[in-house]
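Subject: Protein entry, chain in single-letter code together with its fold tokens

Area: Proteins and the way their chains fold up in space.

Attached in line: The record itself begins immediately under this heading.
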Amino acid sequence: MLSILIPTYNYNIITLVEALHSQCKTCQIEFEIIAYDDGSESELNSINTKINTLDFSTFKELPENIGRSAIRNLLAKNAKYQILLFVDAGTFPKHDNFIENYLNHKNEKVVSGGMTHLELPPKKPYRLRWLYTKKREFKTLCSSNFMINKNVFLSNPFDETLKKYGYEDVLFFEELAAKNIKTLFINNPVIHSADDDSDRFLEKTELAIENLIDLVENKKIDAKSQKMYRLYNKLNKMKLVTITAKFYKAVKPLLLRNFKSSYASMFLFDVYRIGYFCHIKTRK
């Protein structure tokens, strides 16, 4: 019936697995939960091994890091049921009928439940990540929470050539859309834990921007489909790319100060992103 697949890295996922396990029991369905740690060698894995004591549940530590795309493909290959539900570590179902909500759409090829934010904002320096989820991720297709038919997935796996962080899910859903495989979006979100401080979140943001540039240059993602590239092209036409890159370097300390505060600004975060984007492009 249902294979729940959880890729993780250096994270305690016991509470998440127990919640999903309980909901599956309530629904009285055949299910399995498979969780793989992507070679983190974390002490938390000694806690996660308790998952193996739950029926129909497996936790495994991979001997080496294989990447965000490859681990999802591996989980799918090892799943025994035809309905796959991917849920990421660092998230938690918002609704007690999370599993039931997905099962109501079990005949769809692809279904995305979305993501939402913690009700109460965290203290600095975790506010920026929370704000980003609240303002930007609540209606986006993401690999953190989606259900897909196994045959569809195996015919359209994640691109394992992507080794850097970011945009692997954008590429995945764009390739599905290009083949006229529609994704149904439903209101069935997971809550993001917002556990990245501003430094870690900015590090991931920069890696994602670098990955986006590589994907566009390698013609895997259409630049016109990405807001960041559309803005860059406008700046380029006005010959403002170099100026934007220099402005970014000049104001970066002030931006970082804001991001670490309790008053993190999404507008300033956007300034940071396009500034870093232009900075990378001027170096090429």
Remarks:
- The mean pLDDT is 95.
